[in-house]
Amino acid sequence: MNNVSLVGNLARDPELKYASNGMAFVNCAIAVRRTFKDKQSGEYQSDFIGIKAFGKTAELVANSFHKGSKLGLTGNIQTGRYENKQGQTVYTTDVVINSITFVEPKGVGQAPSTNTTKSNYKADPFTQNGPITIDDSDLPF
Fold first, then answer.
1. Which of the 8 DSSP states describes residue 110?
2. Cβ partners under 8 Å of residue 19, min gap 6
3. If exposure means fewest CB atoms within 10 Å of the residue's CB, which of 70, 108, 124, 138 is most exposed?
4. Phi, psi of 57 (to 5 degrees)
5. Which CATH superfamily groups domain 4-138?
């Protein structure tokens, strides 16, 4: 069984991209605070975990969250590898999102809109249409 649940803050603004087949995707990271304090500094440390979203979930992440947004997610761990420009093999571990939970109330933590008459952020889709389901056809593998 390969399941993971995380609650944390986005480490950077998600950037929506499209694969050559038209599939939307987002690669980002979530900062998850550890449950214990560092003995030397007395402060909580965080782990920065790579996350991926595909299809409608990627569009939701890109349109509803920004750097610092608190969210909860469930997904599965995916490992991969690629060769960098120096010819070295780089191994990756990411969480592929299956579902997302809005942790903050609507409007809290949203980036300010530069347009004062119309917000750049969409309404919470969970209060309008229910949860988003992802089927295997949304995944690129």
1. P
2. 25, 140
3. 108
4. -65, -40
5. Nucleic acid-binding proteins (2.40.50.140)
pTM for this predicted structure: 0.69
Quick check: helix, strand or coil at residue 126? helix
* Mean pLDDT of all residues belonging to the chain: 82
* Maximum mean pLDDT: which of 33-37, 112-116, 129-133: 33-37
CB 96 within 8 A of CB 75: yes
State how far the Cα of 70 lies from the Cα of 135, in Å rounded to an integer: 25
Q: Is the dihedral of CA 134, 8, 47, 3 positive or negative?
A: negative
Contact 28, 11 (CB under 8 A): yes
**Residues in contact with 12: Cβ distance below 8 Å, sequence separation at least 6, in sequence order:** 28, 29, 67
Long-range contacts at 87-90 (CB < 8 A, ≥ 24 apart): none
Of 138 and 77, more confident: 77
What are the tokens at 89?
């093999």
Match 């987002």 to its residue by tokens.
26
Which segments of the chain are extended strands (E)?
A: 4-10, 17-18, 24-37, 44-54, 70-83, 89-102
